Amino acid sequence: MKKERQSLNAQNPVFRLERLLRLACFIAIALAILCLYGFTAYHTWLVRPWGEVAVVLLIIAIMYAMAHEAKELNTPDEGGMGPWMCLKNFVCVLIGAALAYTLNVDLGIGAVLAASLVSLMAAILVPTYSVPIALGGFVGMTSSRLLVGYAELSYAAAIAGFIYLGTDRIMQYVDKSGSSDRIYRDGKATHLEGGVRVNAFMRWKGVLDPGSRAQDIVHVTDLFTTTARLAGAEEHIPTDRLIDGVDQTPVLFLGETHGRRDYVFIYEGPSLRSIVKQQYKFHLPLWNRLDLCQCQSGDAPQGS
């Protein structure tokens, strides 16, 4: 059945156009990467000839990875973007970069404010294309000392656009990432759900089951202890202090509900703002946060 579907896709002109577009994106990214590392190898040889060996080995590894990825070009992506949607998203990246660069450099309102305005207006006016426009906005944040003029900006935005199209399989999960489509309240750097919920993708061929999912609580500090366990380096975990992270290998090997964390403390800067326990979440009021800060400094609040 799978072979028949692939045969039908191969005869479909839309699929052939999409495959051609993927091939063009892959070649453009591959050439850009090889050029960058080629210049790096040349300058390394001028400064430290012995460092040339490491750079050459790195280039060989990159070429091997490219050859491996090239085998996937003929695989139809049933859930990905079509050719016309790819073209529209690519143009949106260029538009977002140009708008942010104009606001940032020509009007002088600042990089962060420029990218924020572009992302906000895209989310309001054209929500379907808000993600590629916001991506272009990040490119437009670049200083004019690095990207001199719109010609260099277009080159950088084109690279970003090709990368975006090449990762559309990952971008299909963007609607679960909280603040991207405002499912959850608020966004980055806040203690609300839009600021703390984020996807994590892991691939371990032959060990992790493809397509498996787990919704257990995992904190970023857990990555330290978990990777130390997987690498057999537990003896290097400090024992003279408290370690925030817990070993989450059971989630990887046994699946959902086997996580070792059912709580998490969420900070905004130095202030503790929320406490999560299983499916419950407690937001600390302002007065309580002030008392906690006093307790941490050694001054217990009166009447406690």
Can you walk through the features of this model?
The chain is mostly helical. It has helices spanning 2-11, 13-47, 51-70, 83-106, 111-125, 130-140, 149-166, 168-171, 193-196, 222-230, 249-254, 286-296; strands at 263-268, 271-277, 280-283. 16% of the residues are buried.
Topology, element by element:
Elements: H1 2-11, H2 13-47, H3 51-70, H4 83-106, H5 111-125, H6 130-140, H7 149-166, H8 168-171, H9 193-196, H10 222-230, H11 249-254, E1 263-268, E2 271-277, E3 280-283, H12 286-296
Antiparallel strand pairs: 1-2, 2-3
Helix pairs in contact: 2-3, 2-7, 4-5, 4-6, 4-7, 5-6, 6-7
Question: On the 0-100 scale, what is the average pLDDT?
Answer: 75
Widest sheet: strand ordering: 1-2-3
The total tally of domains equals 3
Low-confidence parts = 1-6, 175-181, 297-304
- In which range does the helix fraction lie? 40-55%
Q: Structural class, from helix and strand content?
A: mainly alpha
Could you tell me the radius of gyration in angstroms? 24 Å
Give the strand content: 5-15%
Q: Tell me, briefly, the overall form.
A: globular
Short description:
Helix content is 55%, strand content 6%. With 304 residues, the chain is mainly alpha-helical.
